[in-house]
């Protein structure tokens, strides 16, 4: 059973006791995942620990321009010489270990750092705080506890994590704590204008074409309260797009007046459908994702379902409509 804490101290102590730590986050990493990894890697070095960052999937377009992004390795299995040199695995933003999508992580002690409600509390030490606006903010607290001054590069990475997970400070998790941390990050050298350019102004041609494909499938249900759209393998082919080009597409139908829940289904490989869910107010889409083996937050959740996209769409939409009618 993990030693569970809501404070950064035990996490800093466990990290400092390692010699070489593997840092990872969930499959299809977002800004909070990648920003937190890069910031934590600097903290690890400050504690005398050698960090190795490993993800299963590429980071979103634009974030590869962040200082430190070039150190991220892409692997589906950790084995051989790499595993032999690791004495701690640190998972960031992974409510369950298998969310990383990487084999072999369970062969080493684990430090679990997460802000998702319903974390499985795995690992040797679990630093969990579901009130945190982003895992990047939790890593920032670890810097403060360790009395290590973050560099402008680490501050920028943490700001990427915080700003993306709060939707540029537009979501309900944009709390006073989020703004206080953001102010500290900017004071330490983070550049919001540069982060905004990386996140919002580095789209690939494929991502823009894929948006057109997705909008052709847009359907409004429940009197305009639910928006649903999808992209299938043929859409990816026509657009010349990749999985990384789906980032932020779900935000487009959220801008439609009256929409309270958005469902976005993505299938780029046979028999596997990724579902992203967004909501407003108290509508808890995490409960819908949990019905299909996923998780997340009240207003932002997701799941991976094995099946064909048409059948998955029917099942997920039915569950969302039930949620909306009840709410």
Could you please describe the fold and organization of this structure?
- With 327 residues, the chain is α/β, with parallel strands linked by helices.
- The protein has two domains: 3-200, Alpha-Beta Complex (inorganic pyrophosphatase (n-terminal core)); 205-326, Diaminopimelate Epimerase, Chain A, domain 1.
- Helices cover 38% and strands 20% of the residues.
- The chain has twelve helices and 13 strands.
- β8 (219-221) and β9 form a beta hairpin.
- α2 (31-46) runs parallel beside α4 and α5 runs antiparallel to α6.
Helix run count? 12
What is the string of SSEs from the N terminus onward? EHEHEEHEEEHHHHHEEHHEEHEEH
CATH architecture of the largest domain: Alpha-Beta Complex
Strand content bin:
15-25%
Shape category: globular
Tags for this model:
7-stranded parallel sheet, inorganic pyrophosphatase (n-terminal core), globular, Diaminopimelate Epimerase, Chain A, domain 1, 6-stranded mixed sheet, alpha/beta, 327 residues, 2 domains
Topology:
Elements: E1 3-5, H1 9-16, E2 20-25, H2 31-46, E3 50-55, E4 73-74, H3 80-84, E5 88-92, E6 110-114, E7 125-128, H4 135-146, H5 152-165, H6 176-187, H7 192-200, H8 205-215, E8 219-221, E9 226-231, H9 233-239, H10 251-254, E10 261-269, E11 272-279, H11 285-291, E12 295-296, E13 300-306, H12 309-326
Parallel strand pairs: 1-7, 2-3, 2-5, 3-4, 5-6, 6-7, 9-10
Antiparallel strand pairs: 8-9, 10-11, 11-13, 12-13
Helix pairs in contact: 2-4, 2-5, 4-5, 5-6, 8-9
């Amino acid at each position: 059973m993990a030693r569970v804490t809501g404070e950064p101290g035990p996490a800093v102590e466990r990290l400092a006791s390692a010699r070489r730590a593997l840092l990872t986050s969930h499959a299809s990493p977002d800004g909070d995942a990648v920003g937190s990894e890069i910031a934590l890697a600097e903290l690890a070095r400050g504690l005398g620990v050698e960090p190795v960052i490993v993800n299963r999937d590429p980071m979103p377009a634009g974030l590869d321009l962040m200082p430190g992004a070039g150190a991220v390795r892409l692997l589906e299995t950790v084995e051989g010489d790499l595993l032999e040199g690791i004495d701690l695995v640190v998972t960031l933003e992974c409510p369950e270990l298998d969310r990383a999508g990487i084999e072999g992580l369970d062969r080493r002690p684990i430090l679990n750092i997460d802000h998702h409600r319903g974390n499985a509390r795995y690992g040797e030490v679990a630093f969990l705080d579901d009130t945190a606006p982003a895992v990047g903010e939790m890593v920032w607290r670890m810097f403060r506890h360790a009395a290590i001054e973050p560099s402008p590069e680490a501050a920028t990475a943490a700001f990427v994590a915080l700003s993306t997970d709060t939707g540029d400070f537009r979501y309900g998790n944009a709390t006073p704590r989020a703004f206080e941390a953001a102010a500290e990050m900017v004071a330490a050298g983070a550049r919001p204008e540069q982060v905004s350019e990386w996140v919002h102004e580095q789209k690939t041609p494929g991502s823009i074409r894929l948006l057109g494909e997705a909008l052709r499938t847009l359907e409004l249900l429940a009197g305009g309260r639910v928006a649903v759209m999808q992209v299938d393998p043929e859409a990816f082919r026509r657009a010349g797009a990749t999985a990384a080009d789906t980032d932020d597409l779900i935000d487009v139908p959220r801008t439609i007046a009256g929409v309270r829940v958005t469902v976005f289904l993505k299938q780029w490989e046979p028999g596997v459908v990724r579902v992203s869910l967004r909501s407003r107010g108290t509508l808890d889409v995490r409960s819908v994702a949990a019905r299909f083996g996923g998780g997340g937050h009240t207003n932002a959740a997701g799941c991976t379902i094995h099946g064909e996209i048409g059948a998955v769409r029917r099942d997920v939409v039915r569950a969302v409509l039930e949620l909306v009618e009840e709410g």
